[in-house]
Amino acid sequence: VLSYTEYHSGNRDIEVRHIGLDNSVANPGIANTDSSGDAFGSHMADLGNGTYVVSWAYSIDHPSIAPSGGYAQVIAHDGTFVGSRFPVTPELANTRLIDVAVTDGTIVSAYLDGAGYPSDVYLGGTQSGSSERSQSILLGTADTSMKVVSIDQGVLVTWSEGRPDVGDGSTIVYAQKFGLESGSLVPLADKVVLLEDQPGVFGISAVSPVVVDGVETGYAVSWIEGADQSQGTTIAATFDVDLNVISSQEAIAVPSGTSWG
Q1: pTM reported for the whole predicted model
Q2: Which span out of 64-73, 150-159, 220-229, 230-239 was modeled with the highest average pLDDT?
Q3: Contacts of 191 (CB under 8 A, 6+ apart)
Q4: For residues 45-58, average pLDDT
Q5: Do the Cβ atoms of 211 and 198 come closer than 8 Å?
Q6: Which of 45, 154, 179, 186 suits 64 as a labelling partner, its CA being 20 to 30 A distant?
Q7: Pick from 139, 39, 32: which is nearest to 86 by CA?
Q8: Tens-digit pLDDT profile for residues 82-132
Q9: What span, in angstroms and rounded, lies between the C-alpha atoms of 194 and 85?
């Protein structure tokens, strides 16, 4: 099952496709069918029970209008929709969904609340199909650089503070682990600094657990360094389970062009 953004009549929608083992392709439809306006920035996560959750950011009218929330839709393994969409962020102007992950059936959303930079960074918890979030946790301030990934203990969230490209000091990248207790997100430890005072670092681009013989041994992280956002080098590193650096090296050099993703 995959999701992507497609333009329809001036606005964007979240299309869903199902690809079978025989390479057959089915079109279950549009995930944001029961909402008007503009939907974009889709993410997918496995709920672990034969269903997936597709989520997206939303603006009330058009791409030029500020985001006003994030929504999700549960999709079965065969691509059929289960129930209706539900919010995974506050349904307010300038609220932008950045990423989602699933831990023990709880949908964890990483989102920003604020117009422009800097914005408040939140972690939200929502039960599948619920009409409202169970909680929101304020982490700090950031731009759009946030990642949340499922790990053995719950989720690992990263975010960056500081924008050297706009004269706001240098970037510090934080990470923090959260687990679940009685369905609620709880911090497993204080936030730690992954990267400190790094000139030209524009935040984490990808995070993944490292699993060896079925055991989670640490995390792989990549980020972009450069003089500005049009020139950068992708650095990849591994961290142990306590988020200490094991090794790092240059992965991709980008002499020109846009350094995203």
Answers
A1: 0.81
A2: 150-159
A3: 139, 140, 174, 175, 176
A4: 84
A5: no
A6: 45
A7: 32
A8: 888 888 888 777 788 888 999 988 889 888 886 666 678 888 888 876 666
A9: 35
The tokens for 207 are 């995070």
- Reference 162, options 110, 111, 200, 207; nearest CA is 200
Say which residues have a Cβ less than 8 Å from residue 167's Cβ, sequence separation at least 6: none
Are 151 and 110 in contact by the 8 Å Cβ rule? The answer is no
| Segment (H or E) for 128 | none
Token pair, residue 83, equals 């129930």
The letter for the amino acid at 59 is: S
3-state secondary structure of 135: strand
Tokens describing residue 66: 């500020």
Q: Which residue's structure tokens are 């929608």? A: 13
State residue 93's pLDDT score: 76
pLDDT tens-place string over residues 245-255: 899 888 877 65
